[in-house]
Specification:
- By secondary structure, the protein is an all-alpha fold.
- It has 14 helices and 2 strands; from the N terminus they run αααβααααααααβααα.
- Residues 221-287 have low confidence and may be disordered.
- It comes from Seriola lalandi dorsalis.
- This is heme oxygenase (biliverdin-producing).
- InterPro entries: Haem_Oase, Haem_Oase-like, Haem_Oase-like_multi-hlx, Haem_oxygenase_CS.
Amino acid sequence: IPEDLSEMLAAGTKEVHEKAESTQFVKDFLRGRIRKELFKLGAVALYYTYTAMEEEIERNKDHPHFAPLYFPAELHRHEALARDLEYFYGPDWQSQVSCSQATQQYVDRIHQVGQDDPVLLVAHAYTRYMGDLSGGQVLKKVAQRALKLPPTGEGLEFYQFDAIHSAKAFKQLYRSRMNELDLDMETKKRLVDEAVKAFQFNMEVFEELEEIGKTIQEDVLDAGMPVHGAMGGDISKCPYYAAKMAASGGTAYACQLAMAILRHPTGQVLFATWFAALAGLAAWYLM
């Protein structure tokens, strides 16, 4: 049984993480299907979530159980999200957006934790920021291509961490800081429980977006790859199936996956998506 907090969090959230990645909203993205209106609403949800989290982080930046994880210049996202929303909605974006019901429940929990039980903020920061760093650059390129966004990065600043030169090195630093926090085993278990709740809040936002999507009359922007199911699990035709096989089957499948996808005209973009999926992103990141 692991005792390092980072290992406990990874193990304790594995099941709910996989459940989040199997939601319809996420699967549609994995299939290369992105709806711009839902992408925009997802950015709105992220804006309210990160604004709440970063308000509470500021409130608790000197708290002994959070201070070692205080990296505002490197990690904080709410200002980048505000710029993305201005790009999508225009200069009066603030009058056009509102916090949805599912997002509000997530926001309320973050504020409750920050004010009443600040150590649990560690779980929320871990769930969001470690996922952000696991695939942001990959998914930035996918969204840029599929939504026909400018190559200069407008609308996708959320994914760009200018102050972090190596995501891998920074994640190692962050996990080591987490492991050095002076916490007893009971508190670590409470943090795992809170991280599971954070994933559940994310899933509720996904489900809400899926419901909203049913009411939006809009052509789906399809990146052009066949979807799993129609292809009967043929690895040469279905990159989603191949990605799943590669995750459990080793390098031979991964090589077949690469060859199958790269033969397709849109293969390079979609290869990035499947690679991101295999990297085990936090739930939002498949949005």
